[in-house]
C-alpha cells in the first residue's frame, strides 16, 4: 500500500485532493494529513473520511523540524504532496513575514526531511519516491496582452509578498532537484474554485454575500482577468503528475477559463437567480445592484492565463469542467452545506478541533 504525506490537507485544495484520491484508489492507498489548523484549515472538510483506517491526521506545523522528521521516521512515506502554504494575497500585504516563514522555511523543512528519509548512502534515492510541490501561476507576474500565456519557461516576476514567497519556495525545490537529483516535480496552477473554499476568496465570498443580501465587493474596475480551474480537475492533474510526470519537471495546470472578475460576479448572480426557486425569499434581493467597486489591491496583477500544453501532451490531462458547469456544481454544494458556511463565517469550526488537538 502506497503512503501519501499530504501537507495542508485540511485546506481547500488539499482536502479536495484527499477526497479525490480516496474516491479513485479507495483502500489501495494510505493518507497521512499534516496540517497546523490555521484559520484556513478546517477538519470539517474531511468529516466523511476521518474514520477510515487508511487515513490519519497529524496536527503539526511544517516549520517544526522535529515533528515532520518524526512522521518520516515512523512511516515509510512514498509520496509527498506539499500544499501547505499561506495563500491569500491581501493577508500577505498586511503581514509578509508569516508568508516567508511558512511558504519558504516550511518548504525547506519538508525538503530536508524527505531527503534525509529517502537518501541512500551513495547519494541516490530510494526507488519510487516522489515529492510534489504545489505552486501558483502568480509567480510569473502579470500578462497584459490577450493571446499571451504563462508557460513553464516563462521567467518569474512575482509582484506580491505571497507570490514572492511561492516563487522562493519553487526555487528551493528546483535547487534540490538540480543539486541532489532529488525526486520531485513542481506544478503551477491557475485560480481554483469549488467545494470547501474559504469565503475570503472571490467566488465563495460572492456566493455567500449574495445569498445574505450583502454588498458584492470588486477591486478596481473589475476587469482583472484570472484563469479558473475547478478544484477536482486540479486534483486529477496532481495525481497524474505524481504517477506519470517526468522527474525534475515543472507542469503548468490551467483551466482554459479566462474571466474578468466582473464577469465572475455577474455569472454567479445569474446562476443563483436560475437555481433558486421563486419561493425562496433570497431570490428577490440577488441582483447587480449589490455590486460595489472598492479601492484596488496594491500591486494588483492585471491578467493571469496558463497554457497547460505540456501536461496535455505528456499525460493527456485536460480541464474537464467548464466554468458554467463548475460554478453550478459549486453553488449546489454551498446550498447543500449551508451549515458548513455558517460554521466557517462564525468561526465555530475552529472551536471544536482546537479543543481536540490542544
From TrEMBL:
Residues 5-329 form the NAD(P)-binding domain. Belongs to the NAD(P)-dependent epimerase/dehydratase family. dTDP-glucose dehydratase subfamily. Its EC number is 4.2.1.46. GO terms for biological process: nucleotide-sugar metabolic process. It comes from the Bacteria. Pfam families: GDP_Man_Dehyd. GO terms for molecular function: dTDP-glucose 4,6-dehydratase activity. Keywords: Lyase, NAD. The keyword Lyase applies. Gene3D superfamilies: NAD(P)-binding Rossmann-like Domain, UDP-galactose 4-epimerase, domain 1. It catalyses: dTDP-alpha-D-glucose = dTDP-4-dehydro-6-deoxy-alpha-D-glucose + H2O. NCBIfam families: dTDP_gluc_dehyt (TIGR01181). Its cofactor is NAD(+). This is dTDP-glucose 4,6-dehydratase.
Amino acid at each position: 500500500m502506497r503512503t501519501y504525506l499530504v501537507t495542508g490537507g485540511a485546506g481547500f485544495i488539499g482536502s479536495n485532493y484527499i477526497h479525490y484520491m480516496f474516491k479513485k484508489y479507495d483502500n489501495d492507498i494510505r493518507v497521512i494529513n499534516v496540517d497546523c489548523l490555521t484559520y484556513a484549515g478546517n477538519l470539517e472538510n474531511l468529516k466523511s473520511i476521518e474514520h477510515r483506517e487508511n487515513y490519519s491526521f497529524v496536527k503539526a506545523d511544517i516549520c517544526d523540524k522535529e515533528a515532520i522528521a518524526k512522521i518520516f521516521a515512523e512511516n515509510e512515506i512514498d509520496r509527498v504532496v506539499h500544499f501547505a502554504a499561506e495563500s491569500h494575497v491581501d493577508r500577505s500585504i498586511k503581514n509578509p513575514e508569516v508568508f516567508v516563514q511558512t511558504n519558504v522555511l516550511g518548504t525547506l523543512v519538508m525538503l530536508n526531511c524527505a531527503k534525509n528519509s529517502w537518501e541512500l548512502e551513495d547519494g541516490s534515492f530510494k526507488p519510487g519516491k516522489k515529492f510534489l510541490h504545489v505552486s501558483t501561476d502568480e509567480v510569473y507576474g502579470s500578462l497584459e496582452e490577450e493571446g499571451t500565456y504563462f508557460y513553464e519557461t516563462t521567467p518569474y516576476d512575482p509582484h506580491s509578498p505571497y507570490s514572492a514567497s511561492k516563487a522562493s519556495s519553487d526555487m528551493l525545490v528546483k535547487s534540490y532537484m538540480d543539486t541532489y537529483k532529488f525526486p520531485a516535480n513542481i506544478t503551477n496552477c491557475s485560480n481554483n474554485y469549488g467545494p470547501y473554499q474559504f469565503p475570503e476568496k472571490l467566488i465563495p465570498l460572492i456566493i455567500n454575500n449574495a445569498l445574505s443580501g450583502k454588498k458584492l465587493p470588486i477591486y478596481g474596475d473589475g476587469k482583472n482577468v484570472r484563469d479558473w480551474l475547478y478544484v477536482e480537475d486540479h486534483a486529477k492533474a496532481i495525481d497524474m503528475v505524481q504517477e506519470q510526470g517526468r522527474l525534475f519537471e515543472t507542469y503548468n495546470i490551467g483551466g482554459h477559463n479566462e474571466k474578468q472578475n466582473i464577469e465572475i460576479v455577474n455569472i454567479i448572480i445569474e446562476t443563483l437567480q436560475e437555481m433558486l426557486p421563486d419561493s425562496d425569499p433570497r431570490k428577490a434581493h440577488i441582483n447587480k445592484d449589490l455590486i460595489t467597486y472598492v479601492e484596488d489591491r496594491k500591486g494588483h496583477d492585471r491578467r493571469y492565463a496558463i497554457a497547460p500544453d505540456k501536461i496535455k501532451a505528456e499525460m493527456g490531462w485536460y480541464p474537464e469542467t467548464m466554468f458554467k458547469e463548475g460554478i453550478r456544481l459549486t453553488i449546489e454544494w454551498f446550498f447543500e452545506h449551508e451549515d458548513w458556511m455558517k460554521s466557517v463565517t462564525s468561526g465555530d469550526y475552529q472551536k471544536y478541533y482546537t479543543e481536540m488537538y490542544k
